[in-house]
UniProtKB/TrEMBL annotation:
Ranges in a coiled coil: none
Highest taxon, organism lineage: Bacteria
Name of the protein in its database record: N-acetyltransferase
Signal peptide (residue range): none
GO MF entries: acyltransferase activity, transferring groups other than amino-acyl groups
Length: 152
């Protein structure tokens, strides 16, 4: 199993991965936004592969709160690999990449009810819930992890 940066040729397979996780984790209306993200904002987006097959992906972005906050974004795992530690491995990889930037003091994730427990186990704390944020029935769970010198 390996983690690597996204390549432009990955986009069709990533859209397929998105669809495999719809509607359990994403609303179909979010596909257009995900496609735009892959084309415009994916400089820190990573693929996790097993036997040259994409089994997961996820990214992060900088520049929030005057550069003091990074945001984990668009994480997803192939349904055949759910519950096997792949999401944890990919999340920890992204957190470790973010920690390489000492100016970042916190990491936020915007997620849903279905996944917020996973992020709690990773050390994120729930800040707020906003009903029907992503789409009807897809509430926003805004979560945050503070970084400090003891975590680096």
């Amino acid at each position: 199993m390996k983690i690597r940066p996204i390549d432009t040729k990955d986009q069709p397979k990533l859209l397929e991965l998105f669809r495999l996780n719809t509607p359990q984790f994403f609303d179909p209306s979010e596909e257009k936004e995900f496609s735009h993200y892959l084309q415009q904002d994916s400089e820190n987006y990573f693929i996790i592969e097993e036997a040259n097959s994409i089994i997961g992906s996820g990214g992060f972005n900088y520049g929030f709160d005057k550069g003091k906050t990074a945001r984990i974004s668009w994480g997803m795992i192939h349904p055949d690999w759910h519950g096997k530690g792949i999401g944890t491995k990919l999340t920890q990889y992204r957190i470790n990449e973010i920690k390489k930037h000492p100016e970042v003091e916190a990491i936020v994730v915007r997620t849903t009810k279905v996944v917020h427990g996973f992020y709690q186990k990773q050390g994120f704390e729930l800040l707020k819930i906003e009903k029907d944020y992503w789409a009807p029935g897809f509430d926003l769970y805004l979560m945050k992890m503070k970084l400090g010198s003891k975590f680096r």
